[in-house]
Write a structure and sequence with these properties.
4 copies of one chain form a homotetramer. With 345 residues, chain A is of the alpha/beta class. Chain A has 12 helices and 13 strands. A 7-stranded mixed beta sheet of chain A has the order 8-9-7-10-13-12-11.
């Protein structure tokens, strides 16, 4: 197996590389980086010393294109739009971790991302890689738009309930908290340790580009009229997302229906763990793993349901889900390279 | 001025003592602690070395009761119910930082706190010490029920809007994030560093005893039918609360109305700072100060308003507000001892 | 393969269990806990949900003793002294992660640990499990005294230099910094989040029980006259130890000698990575792995050599090294179950 | 009183401004920033909202120069060399927080700082502002070279012992641990939250520019032959330095001599607190204050003395000490504006 990683020096790139090093198929991995061409990955990430001494290439040659089974693109949004179409046109299979191909609608993309959209053809061809919900299409896809970290945590919790008409789609409010690695390795004032430590910060109020991605997910199971409220906070930790999601139960529906819907939906899924009503969750219980843990509470006083969903944003929210998708595409055991037990403490 | 602090070795007790050391009236402060009687406060808190070498007494003597101008009780919920009535009966003025006297209704108290309620007389006499909203009554009160940390952050943001009928009181959902000091100095698995670090945790789902306190606050301005949804999270930091509060604007109301209501309400208040719409807030901008900072966003897509409110839970959420109340009770400059500029970084 | 873990609910116990779950031999693991008998491991550690649902037993039955290939004891110091001798007398092979059997000298043990020493027979039989330095004896040992976290980091750096007479053994000073997990899961004021966060603390000054363990290690290669100075600090992180070690180069010796000694010593060792002179190290580059990374600087101005050594205290400093020792004892690939690439960020 | 702050948007600049806002002399403060000219300080530091709305000026006019009583320069090393001489030539009194004027020797400066040295005249005129050790000269100085954060912590602990010939000056090794704010507000990979969190890192091995500053301090009391070893680590916290300092007691000297020397030296000093032998120290006990806390241990086994010294790097290690020096220069109460009780937790 021949694998390429474009944008190998970002956090999801290096996490993906770590996972591939432990993959039972022992793929040959080639690293690409436009900014660090010629450098060794260990220059940037000394934790890889003696594990690899790979140098990084600037871009894929025709030869690479011919032999690569899969290329992961960990380049940022905007860059994927530019660099992937030629590779795709040449027939290569790509899993893109950026947001560029997640929305089918170029107008919507340009509105929320404030960048030119990718070519319509590839927008249209792209398969949304929410692994548990789209397996059949993922299997045969040429281009996977790997989901965003927040949409993964939120959609995995909400989709089963929407599908079974248990909650009122017009009442959805999701309040998400993320560690700093979610914002990537690039330097920014908000990511300076002295700014971020001992600080919980609200950002991108009502403007987060993951909003249309989630609404599109709801539309994909027929809930086309959802306009959700979504807030994002940075909390002082490196990894982890907790989404706390509020909605109203439909008349006649009970917490038992909720639990059953979640359990039925995920009983055959390895990476989603459904907990009983009123189970306290913390992000650390999925830290370093590809799990999404879900629980919920129903408040009789208010008639509102609250869902809790936790993931490791770099794994289930990025590199882990990408590898899961690769396993599906290559017809491998879904858990290959992903049997990661959460690290605690 | 003679001041006593009961429960001086808890986090709000020692924070109050720090504030009183810097108070311009230079009050004489006596410390009481049932568990650390006879020890010096510096044994527990070496940061106070050379600033004081006070020993701690077990309880107030008749002589103390006679001469004390104010006693702060930083004892935990339940203990206040037991120890304060005799002091109050003897005529002493008390500011209680626990929850015991915050709800006027003993049935409600026992339901949420799962402890016997204090005597009806003192429940009835107690004045709720939300400083900006209750000044007149605070001034002449014998017993102040100092507000909880979460209710302070949430109520200060919501009350102006409810008062001006800008939001639908039936749609309120508050999602709060707190640092670990909010849970106090007592040892618990959830407060162990290795558990709490790199972890965001949901707790007391729909069961937090601050819920009836907030609903009572809304009722106090005529919104008697509110059943709010309230979630609390621990995030890995020591101090700080961020409350993210969702509601729906009433028909015909605009973000301009919201800003104006907040500004008018607090324009003469030193400790509440209102920011323009869409201002990003972080808990660190009030860290080490008695400020509550408030901003908001209105989302035209959804018609929902989101309020953001940040405080330092040990100051505006506990000791700072208690001292503010003391200043009001003693007819001092409200900001005496509280002119704390947030420490950053 | 049948494995037992005594003290399974401590941090090194649960880390060991996590490693054994990923071990290619797929051992059957039985968990023992005196305090949590009858509970499920997932009650304490929800991260293990759906991975296991094992209940914990109080102690080993005769039947367990018969069939267990290896028992790991993660009980605290003092407890090992009590509970292991009967198991050992019954012939079982034990890897003890506590300090009880590390010092051969019962007088020394009682002086530093302030507890009664284990029976002389087992003190004498115990093989010190510093994997890279004691492989032959480990292979055939019945009882392994698994090294302490600090002695692992310090000894791996110093032993090659002492062995080659490159440094003056009378000049050794080691300054160590550890994350909070090193102190274990038990509740203590010093481990409360609000105490430990934003705090670097010195503790056990000149009294740390790991001092005689390190001096014994130096004596084991003939440096019997070493009295080292050793300081330990808690820094606000969960995992990781950095040891900064000062000594004077022997006359005529150079940094090149130092590098060569380190490289030769560890060139065939998988888990010790030697970096060139003046390489900056951080604990995070070994986080979540069984590596010990070593580098050094020589200062011509002062003639002093400084060694830097970093480990993950729960892996190379505890459970990882214990499993490495098990692999050696069972004649397995040394890296089985330990091919962990450091997790970053 | 008229005060200027050059480089007001750095961490020590804004901390100084915070202190000056609380100074009893109520000085008029003008802010200067070459990079943020025309912006408001609250744009960068929203915690100052409603406390000030000052805009920042690019540089001092002739008028400023005439009326300013003191100018603090918080510009980085190198910039002070360029911008201060014209101001000094015009007769203004300056407290410089950078390293440029701390070494009297331009050759030494250029060697360690790798930048051109300031004019000899001002190098020569500059008075080193280690407040407790240089009061008389500080009082009448035109230019204060405010000490570095590490040299403050280390020198305050060592100078009394060197002065009384209690320790062998040839045996000094200082191992320092600092929070991230010490590296300033500028963006750097090492200060990215995801890099710095859960990481203890060694840096600038044997190359730190504070080494000659400390050796010069020792020389200033006659210990001219000291070449010390000095290591610096970043630990994951925002504020705080702990220096752990090793040396050998001179023959015939005892821990009692050490305690007495420290106590005598600092008994009249408000900001240095000497603790008894074997007192555990943590950086948090001085957090948010201008204190330097010192304790020590003597190890009979090794004959070595270990000193512990903790400061808040932004206060005693920068802005606090600068203000202390201003108070001395202006003949004010030394503690004016600095009566800060450490904030805990």
């Amino acid at each position: 197996m021949e694998i390429g990683i474009i944008g190998a020096t970002g956090y999801s790139g290096v996490e993906l590389y770590r996972l591939l090093c432990g993959h039972p198929e022992k793929p040959a991995v080639t690293l690409f980086s436009s900014s660090k061409e010629g450098q060794y990955i260990t220059d940037e990430y000394p934790q890889l010393t003696e594990i690899t001494n790979k140098g990084m290439l600037h871009k894929l040659s025709a030869d690479h294109i011919k032999k690569m089974d899969i290329v992961f693109s960990c380049a940022p949004s905007g860059v994927s739009t530019e660099i992937l179409p030629p590779l795709l046109d040449a027939g290569i299979r790509v899993i893109d971790l950026a947001g560029d191909y997640r929305l089918k609608d170029s107008v919507l993309y340009e509105k929320w991302y404030k960048k030119p959209a990718p070519p319509e053809r590839w927008l249209h061809e792209a398969v949304y890689g929410l692994s548990e919900w789209n397996k059949e299409k993922i299997q045969s896809a040429q281009l996977i738009a790997n989901p965003g970290c927040y949409p993964t945590a939120v959609s995995l919790a909400l989709l089963p309930l929407l599908k079974h008409n248990l909650i009122d789609p017009l009442t959805i409010i999701a309040d998400a908290k993320s560690g700093l690695s979610g914002a990537g390795a690039s330097l920014a004032k908000s990511a300076h340790y002295a700014q971020a430590n001992e600080n919980t910060v609200i950002y991108k109020m009502n403007q987060h580009q993951h909003i249309p991605e989630m609404e599109k997910n709801f539309a994909s199971i027929g809930k086309t009229d959802v306009t959700m409220t979504f807030s994002t906070h940075l909390v002082p930790m490196t990894r982890g997302i907790m989404a706390t999601i509020y909605s109203e139960l439909e008349p006649g529906k009970s917490p038992q229906n909720v639990l059953r819907a979640l359990q039925e939906c995920y009983e055959k899924e390895h990476f989603v763990r459904v907990h009983p009503e009123n189970t306290m969750l913390g992000t650390k219980q999925v830290y370093g793993s590809n799990y999404c843990d879900i629980s919920f509470s129903f408040d009789e006083r208010t008639g509102r349901l609250t869902l809790y969903s936790v993931i490791d944003n770099l794994l289930k929210g990025a590199a882990g889900q990408a590898l899961h998708n690769m396993n599906i595409m290559m017809d491998l055991d879904e858990t290959a390279g992903l049997q990661l037990i959460p690290q605690f403490p």
